[in-house]
Amino acid sequence: MFCMETVAKIRRRHLVHGETISGIARELRLTRNTVKKYLNQSEPPAYQRSAQPKPKLGDYEALLIGWLEQDAQRPKRQRRTAQRLFEELQGEGYGEAYDSVQRAVKAWKQSQRRSASTQAFIPLLFAPGEAAQFDWSHEQVELGGVVQTVKLAHFRLAYSRQSFLVAYPRESQEMLFAAHDRAFVFFGGVPLRMIYDNPKTLVDVIFTGKERRFNPPLPRPGQPLPARARCLHTRRWLGEGAGGEPRGQCARVAVLATSGFR
Prior knowledge:
This protein has helices at residues 4-15, 21-28, 32-39, 60-72, 82-91, 98-117, 173-187; strands at residues 131-143, 146-157, 163-168, 193-196, 203-206, 212-214, 236-237. It has 262 residues and is of the alpha/beta class. The longest helix is centred in the middle third of the chain and has 20 residues, at 98-117.
């Protein structure tokens, strides 16, 4: 496509000054068909950007991407807006315009959505009482007028989605076992296996594949287990196998369940 100035010159010389198509083509060294093409258009061609320029972030791009990846792991209400990220980049010395940050944030989010849409998951079916998922979360509560952080133990049965939650002041193995005791009393039984997301109260080191080094008080598979730890004998870790286990069910639990197995 010719530049806008050339197109305007063709139309002005023919429509205003009355020059012939052959004369315009000869003077501007164009073909007659090219001159006719732009004269026959009802409206002058609008400018179209061939590609959006890359945001001028420079050395701050890696820092911004790191912040976006951190926010992706947080609840939605705790994620920073593009404006907030721009202000924090300014605090790090960034001196360019807000538009560059906004475009970079938008492009990153679009790439994440495209990546998520290409993932495939194998639906899993569970028998009643076959499995339950456990995970910890950190919540803010007000106790005696003081806002404090508590650790919330989440349990969810894989078949019925029945849920149980209990709060503790900290995350430790003693409280891990106490939470399991209370959950199994609530459910009225013990699932055949438990699904864990490698909590630090259970796993000390994660190796390649399925290998784990467990915390010292926790017996290894095949060793005698105390009654309160028996549920851990058939543990399974999230991410094993195609599609993995239903990661994140516990994170979506909002209220305590009030009935047993269904």
